[in-house]
Amino acid sequence: MWVTFDWKDALDILIVSCLFYVFLILLRRTHSRFIFNGITILLVVYAVARFFNLYLTTLLFQASFAFLAVVLAVIFQRELRGFFEWLYVWGRWRRSQPDSVPDTVADEIVEAVTTLAGHRIGALIVLPGRQMIDGVLQGGIVLAGKVSTPLLLSLFDPSSPGHDGAVIIEADQVTRFSVHLPLAEHFDQYPTFGTRHRAALGLAERSDALVIAVSEERGTVSVARAGELRTLRQSSALKEDVSAIIKERFQHTPGRPWYWLLTYNMREKAVAVLFALLFWAIFVGSLGSGVITRPYDVPVEFQFLPEGFAIGEMSRETVAVTLSGRTQDFNMLEPEALRVVIRLPGGVKGRQRMRIEESMISRPSPLSVVRFTPRYLEFTVQKQE
Predict the structure, then answer these.
(1) Which of 82-91, 123-132, 226-235, 302-311 shows the lowest mean pLDDT across its residues?
(2) Which of 27, 81, 314, 315 has CB 3.0 to 4.6 Å from 379, enough for a Cys bridge?
(3) Distance CA 153, CA 222 (A)
(4) Class of 103-251 in CATH
(5) Is 172 exposed, middle or buried (0-12, 13-18, 19+ CB in 10 A)?
(6) d(Cα 64, Cα 216) in Å, to the nearest integer?
(7) What pLDDT digit, counting tens, does each position of 145-180 carry?
């Protein structure tokens, strides 16, 4: 039997979908999809066990979840560290759109890159995206100079002290140079590249920045973005390729934030929503969930006692209360928080008999009272000795 679906369930699924989406982006950026495959198999087995009420299998999974979490934390500590670094950058979302690169600035960058590649001079050029990258950068010298081909060529000149570092370009300004980028953790699939390209991929794994790397050994131009590194073809169209990549990434159509939200990483977003719905079905939906009732012995609490008086003899110290609600509401309930609150009127003294009303039973709002006993409570308000 399916439980009722309300706005809290929708919000719950939305939050879990966002968490799954962040996790999937991490796996894609760190090339650790085998972790996702293994976790998926375990979740499928657990869902089947819950669906068919396989008690032993379900019990084994529930007992081993904490142990598996520790094991995964030890085995994949590098991936987890990369995740928290990436989450730090992602969490400091800077603005809805990155600064556009003007046509003239894009042309200057393209001209500098093709010239550096032709002379086999190494270079790293970073074009930040929507996410803050300050937290993963090291060093660097503030410049705040207008982008131009001569400026870029001079910064990467082998005789320049800062030529081995990266240049940060925002809008039409070179904001910093000689910057050290974080190295990529997963670089095994690029055995022919060196430290410069590993640094380019390292920043692309941790942010949505576009990083252009020029190899001094081969004279090739590579582009790192979204956790991937791609080398452009050495041809007469190299300038057009670099220009197209820059303009595609940073020269967006203004006023269309919803277009990016609905079209960017659609596969990962769809998978995240499906997993959130699966989790909701397993833990909240039809697989063993529903409206249930549970009894509780709820203690009585007195408020507004006259000064110098206390509660003496009581007919009962607890009230038997039966609550009704959904399974997840009971799972989040702390029984110690349940109270029957009796507010005494001023001047009450001696032996009292008070009727218990449902409104006196303090409980979380999703839970409703089915029944309670006794209906009356007798007690004595006596002077403290």
Answers:
(1) 82-91
(2) 314
(3) 17
(4) alpha beta
(5) middle
(6) 51
(7) 999 999 999 999 998 888 889 999 988 899 999 999
The pLDDT tens digits for 317-332 are 999 999 998 777 787 7
Residue 85 C-alpha from the chain's centroid: 12
Least confident of 78-92, 103-117, 284-298: 78-92
* Euclidean distance between CA atoms 205 and 185, whole angstroms: 9
Task: Determine contact, residues 286/2, Cβ cutoff 8 Å.
Answer: yes
d(CA 291, CA 289): 7
The model carries a pTM of: 0.54
- Do 147 and 107 form a contact (C-beta atoms < 8 A)? no
The CATH fold of domain 291-383: RNA Polymerase Alpha Subunit; Chain A, domain 2 (2.170.120)
Q: 198-237 burial, b if ≥16 CB within 10 A, otherwise e? A: bbbbbbbbbbbbbbbbbbbeeebbbbbbebebebbeeeee
Q: What's the whole-number mean pLDDT along residues 201-208?
A: 84
Q: Which residues of 294-324 are buried (b: 16+ CB within 10 A; e: fewer)?
A: eebebebeeeeeeeebebeeeeeeebebebb
Written in H, E and C, the secondary structure of the chain is CCCCCCHHHHHHHHHHHHHHHHHHHHHHHHCCHHHHHHHHHHHHHHHHHHHCCCHHHHHHHHHHHHHHHHHHHHHCHHHHHHHHHHHHHHHCECCCCCCCCCHHHHHHHHHHHHHHHHCCCCEEEEECCCECCHHHCEEEEEEEEECCHHHHHHHCCCCCCCCCCEEEEECCEEEEEEEECCCCCCCCCCCCCCHHHHHHHHHHHHCCCEEEEECCCCCCEEEEECCEEEECCCCCCHHHHHHHHHHHHHCCCCCCHHHHHHHCCHHHHHHHHHHHHHHHHHHCCCCCCCEEEEEEEEEEEEECCCCCEEEEEECCCEEEEEEEEEHHHHHCCCHHHCEEEEECCCCCCEEEEEECCHHHEECCCCCEEEEEECCEEEEEEEECC
Cis peptide before 345 (omega within 30 of 0): no
- Asked if the domains at 103-251 and 291-383 fall in one CATH topology, the answer is no
Do the Cβ atoms of 25 and 272 come closer than 8 Å? no
